Every structure is written in C-alpha cells, then in structure tokens.
Amino acid sequence: KKKHKMQSAQKIMPYIPKSMHPTMFSALQHAMKSPNSVPLATIPAAVVLAYVPHWIKILVIFKNRGAMGYDNVMPRTALGGGGLARNRSTGEDKSLTDLITRLNGAHYNGLESLAPFASAVLVCVANKADPFAAAALAFRFLLSRVLFNGFYMLGSNNAVALLRTLSWVYGFRVVFQIFRLGLAGKVAKVAKKAAKK
C-alpha cells in the first residue's frame, strides 16, 4: 500500500520545478515513515487560514486610517456596531467599513470552524484511520476555507455571498466525512465485540 502511494505521488514530480524535487522527496519519505504527521499538519494550516483575514483587516485599517485608526486598547469596538457607525458618520467610505466587517466575519468564522475540524482530525489519528484518506479530506477542508475567505472578502453582492455559503457548506460536509472516517473503524470494532457476546 505504501509503495502504491509513493508511486502515485511520484507521478506529479514532472509538474514540479526540479529545484523542489529534493524537498518533495524528503517530505514524501517523512510522510511514509510517519503518516499521521500529514493530517496533523493540516491543523496548524487551518489556524493560519483562520487568521489570514484578521491580518489583512489590520493591514487595511493601518493603510486607510493610519496607526491612529486602530484602537489597540479596545480593538473590537472599532468593528462593532458603534465603531462602524461612528466611522460612517465621519464620512469614511462605506465600502471600506464593509470590507473590514467582512474580514472580521471571515476571521471569526475561521475560528468557529477550527474546533470541529481539529477534533475530526484528532479522532482519525486516535482511532488509527487511514492517514492518507484523512489527509485528503483535510486538504479538501483547507481548500474550502481558502475559497470561503476569498468569497467573504470579495463578497459585496448576492452571487459571491452564495458562493461563500456553498464553500462553507462544503467545508462542513468534509468535517463530517473526516469524523465518519475516524469513527468507522471504532464503530466496526465495537459492533464485532457486541456480536461475539
């Protein structure tokens, strides 16, 4: 099985720049020696994806309002109801405050989706589910988060908002698939034990 996975992975090598081949082989060898490291590595990647909108939000605030536009003592008030209403009353561009609000929403949603995703991956690892299948599903989740963030940041109309919702639904569906993968082996073992009694 490992040999088949390695052969499948080597098929992509012609599409990767030659300078990256040693790094890719090293990563593949590490994945073969410690296969659970691949799905586990997607958890910090999901953390990074949850914080990307936050970092972009800070950059947008500093670029458009300057250092004085960010209240580090009470940073959330600038984004909550009163802060945005105050910014609009001062004549600030509505599209800027809307962008900041969407970035904030994408950040919060990323944090909200992190716990179920990380739990599902840990269930797979704890129950010794197929790490390559878990990694494939985890990468699908990460892709859904990249799309979600992009659609949320750019979502100033209903069509893009619908795409954002669809990417969220897909990501949540993948989380349930990861849980199912992680619990399938455990449920089968429990059923076998119950059948023997």
Question: Descriptors for this entry?
Answer:
197 residues; mainly alpha; 79% helix; globular
Helical stretch tally: 7
Give a short account of the largest sheet: none
Quickly give the structural class.
mainly alpha
Percentage of residues in DSSP E strands: under 5%
Over the alpha carbons, how many angstroms does the gyration radius reach?
22 Å
Task: Give the low-pLDDT segments.
Answer: none
Helical amount = over 70%
Average predicted local confidence, pLDDT = 81
Tell me the overall shape.
Answer: globular
Distance between the termini: 33 Å
Written as H for each helix and E for each strand, in order along the chain, the element string is HHHHHHH
Number of strands: 0
Written description of the protein model:
There is one protein chain. By secondary structure, this protein is an all-alpha fold. It contains seven helices and no strands. It has helices at 2-10, 21-33, 37-65, 81-89, 94-126, 131-154, 158-196. The longest helix has 39 residues, at 158-196. The mean pLDDT is 81.
